[in-house]
Write a structure and sequence with these properties.
By secondary structure, this protein is an alpha/beta fold. The chain has two domains: 6-143, Rossmann fold (3-Layer(aba) Sandwich); 149-433, no CATH class. 43% of the residues lie in helices and 18% in strands. It contains 17 helices and 14 strands.
């Protein structure tokens, strides 16, 4: 059974006296429903679950008055075996985007306060079937992602004791013991090819087979193709699909900037921008924006027309390539050098996104003589982060750290921990601590 970080967030939500209704957002098949069911089993006497995709007839419960006493009476007609017990009941409204009236009802569940309510939806980030009255002030949000690398390590049997030791090495700039470092790099390469989709991770550890995990990945990618066709507006369906499935090619280029001409010959922002916006809103992809100046706030210097696009899970990216690429990644083979830089860059983006960095920035000048893969906004100011698939020189980072306004910078490599003046060198797997 996979251990997920979201469980602690759900417990904190339950224990909050001024609790609102909770909306759990994220893409399809990332474990939202499983996590809520497991949480309910351990924390509530009564669990009432409605999935509006699987049980569309239950939308009728919310067609009339939305005061809670009326809703409870209507529930008793449609689900006569269900008994709501105040203070001991969790109501779970899954795929709530399919029932706008249920979204509106969250305001009244919050005001009533007798029952805990969690809603979940895979497309809540986009303007799809928006209710006429949105319950502003009645909702708390948790954005959920596929398993991050730390959760993947839990699934692989790595103990909290080992993770604490690694965190201490990160904090003190101390090298990791070589046998542990070697094992962590091996697990990182495995995470590169499996990613964090729960069905993929389960397939890998249950069958101990990369091929089994690969098949699950390809099935999910087919499902996502269907989701785009089902949810996107008519004018965006084909365009959003083309943009999403062009990501592998975009990141295989020397310049990883998203180019509409790769999506379609002659393609341009006017035709495809809304499709990229849709993918971002649907939690299927994330943009990393180029900035003209490396100062806070970075958002003020972002060029929205110059961006890189990363999928919501690193495994979905490697699943877009031919299976032979995975053998190369696992062995570190040179046969994948054409794509390796972009894949490791996407790996770090995966770690940052799943660690709460909802906005990503990078810096690359027009002459391509200077490039920093990521820029982090911290209490110490802007911190540069350079990513290397191997351990080559970091000219851009070195030149940047000569300037007084930058306190330090990170270089993530296929190597161990080290520190030289303002440059902190970290193994790639320590991206999970950033």
């Amino acid at each position: 059974m996979l251990r997920r970080k979201v469980t602690d967030k759900l417990i904190n939500w339950k224990n909050n006296r001024d609790r609102k209704c909770l909306v759990l957002r994220g893409a399809r098949q990332i474990g939202k429903t499983f996590s809520v069911r497991r949480f309910a089993e351990e924390n509530f006497d009564v669990f009432v679950e409605i999935n509006f995709l699987m049980q569309p007839s239950l939308k009728d419960i919310f067609k009339g008055n939305l005061d809670i006493d009326t809703l409870l009476l209507t529930f008793s007609v449609y689900l006569p075996d269900v008994k709501f017990i105040p203070g001991k009941t969790l109501l779970f409204l899954d795929e709530i985007q399919e029932c706008p009236e249920a979204i509106t009802s969250l305001k009244f569940w919050k005001e009533d306060g007798r029952f805990c309510v969690i809603a979940s939806g895979s497309m809540l980030g986009i303007d799809y079937k928006r209710p006429t009255s949105y319950p502003v002030g009645a909702i708390e949000y948790i954005d959920m992602h596929p398993l991050d690398f730390k959760e993947f390590l839990w699934a692989s049997g790595i103990s909290d004791e080992i993770l604490h030791m690694l965190r201490n090495c990160f904090d003190t700039f101390s090298p990791v013991a070589e046998p542990i470092h070697k094992k962590m790099m091996e697990l990182l390469r495995t995470y590169l090819v499996t990613g964090g989709m729960p069905d993929v991770v389960n397939a890998f550890f249950t069958e101990k087979s990369v091929a089994a995990a690969d098949q699950k990945q390809r099935d999910i990618l087919k499902d996502y193709r269907y989701d785009i066709a089902h949810y996107a507006k008519a004018e965006d369906k084909i365009k959003a699909e083309k943009c999403f499935f062009s990501i592998a090619e975009q990141l295989s280029k020397e310049n990883h900037k998203f180019q509409y001409s790769i999506v379609e010959k002659g393609g341009n922002a006017r035709k495809y921008k809304n499709s990229v916006d849709w993918l971002s809103g649907a939690f299927l992809a994330y943009r990393c924006i180029n900035v003209s100046k490396m100062s806070m706030p970075l958002e003020s210097y972002g060029d929205e027309t110059n961006f890189r696009l990363y999928p919501s899970d690193i495994g979905l990216l490697t699943g877009m390539f031919d299976y032979s690429l995975k053998s190369g990644l696992l062995s570190g083979g040179v046969q994948i050098s054409h794509a390796k830089g972009g894949i490791y860059e996407a790996l770090v983006a995966d770690m940052l996104i799943k660690n709460g960095h909802d906005k990503l920035y990078f810096r690359r000048n027009e002459q391509a003589t200077f490039e920093i893969e990521f820029l982090l906004e911290t209490d110490d100011g802007v911190i540069p982060l350079e990513v290397k698939a191997g351990n080559s020189r970091s000219r851009s980072l070195d030149s940047m750290l000569k300037k007084d306004e930058f306190s330090y910078g990170y270089k993530l490599i296929d190597g161990n921990v080290g520190k030289a003046e303002k440059k902190i060198t970290l193994p790639l797997y320590m991206g999970m601590f950033l």
